[in-house]
Amino acid sequence: MYLSLDLQLFAQEKTEQATPKKKKETREKGQVAKSNDVNTAFILLFVFLSFWFLGRYVVDKLEGLLQSSFQDFLLMELTETNVQSLFLEYSVQSALIVGPFMFIAMIAAIAGNYLQVGILFAPEAIKMKLEKLDPIKGAKRIFSVRALVEFLKSMLKIVLVGFVTFTVIWMFFDDVLKLSLYSIGESVRIIGNLTLIMGLAVAILLIFLSVFDYLYQKYDHEKNIRMSKQDIKDEYKKSEGDPLIKSKIKEKQRQMAMSRMMAEVPKADVVITNPTHFAVALKYDGENMSAPVVVAKGVDYIALKIINVAKGNSVITVENRPLARALYAQADIGDPVPEDLFKAVAEVLAYVYRIQNKLS
Fold it and tell me: Is this structure's pTM higher than 0.90?
């Protein structure tokens, strides 16, 4: 009893890799291996690169906006119409300044997701599920091994990002100390370059870390979707059908095929036997057939059954061991007699026709 219980528990342990069907089902539910750090790293990298290449564009736009504000907008009369026009102007200018960076960030986020999961449409993932509001399950998620791993990852990222930014500042520490000696424009340029270098350094660091995080997420995902041996058996039964039912269906099909074959034996002209191990029933219609056709064949029990049906319906049986074996091996039911056996079959049919003429 204890051995049986142990075997059942072992069968329920999720030790097997997920089948392609299980992976497809989990993917359709939106459950895929994905690292949010990859998206964050891509967004940071692309945005700071866009700052690098579009920095002059942003400065020109801001200078133009400030110049218009102090030279034109401050002199305007405060009316409802002017306030609306000012609001519209500032909105358009803000969109022109921020829009390119928002668009680049969106492209970076899409690229990060595409590299990880490809094209995925999973509406089931956004369906509202009341079980997600279960406080017990929520507490289990908070105080779980995964939550601890995520906490340690976050602390590691904070330490490394702090170290990288401190290193960059330390490298340019002399320039930072001399900021008071520079003009406003030069100070802004130095701070802007320093910010870009820190941003790019952090982005490269996060990309490096995100590779390991993605590998961990992939390992954790594959671990969570593992299947037990019983799960695999159940899936096979659902996809292929219960083996017991399939065997019964096949047995029924064999019985039906046997019945159809036995129904053709009374219509045969001759049954060639071995005498008991092989039996092949032939039929020939000179007007509709170019050669005799095999209408039934069998070995052992089926052969005896064919012979008994033939005797019960006055169909002549002829013992010819080599011919019976050759016909059984070379022709299936419904096939014409092979050409190399024409002569032997013709002799048998001629013998049968002579007997039939004598009987008649």
Answer: no
Which tokens go with 254?
């064999």
The neighbour count for residue 209, using CB atoms within 10 Å, is 20
Pick left, alpha or beta for residue 162 (phi over 0 → left; psi -120 to 50 → alpha; otherwise beta).
alpha
The β-bridge partners of 297 are: 280
Cα–Cα distance list, 222 to 117, 152, 232, 332 (Å): 14, 21, 15, 50
d(CA 156, CA 120): 31
Euclidean distance between the first and the last CA atom of the chain, given in angstroms as a whole number: 75
| Number of CB atoms found within 10 A of residue 164's CB | 17
How is 39-106 classified by DSSP, letter by letter?
A: HHHHHHHHHHHHHHHHHHHHHHHHHHHHHHHHHTGGGS---HHHHHHHHHHHHHHHHHHHHHHHHHHH
pLDDT digits (tens, 9 = 90+) for 124-173: 656 666 666 666 665 666 667 777 877 888 888 889 888 988 998 898 88
d(CA 173, CA 281): 103
| SS3 label, residue 316 | strand
Is residue 315 within 8 Å of 299, Cβ to Cβ?
no
Q: What 3-state class would DSSP assign to 292?
A: coil
Q: What is the pLDDT of residues 238-296, one digit of tens each?
A: 665 556 666 776 777 677 767 777 777 787 888 888 777 888 888 877 777 778 888 88
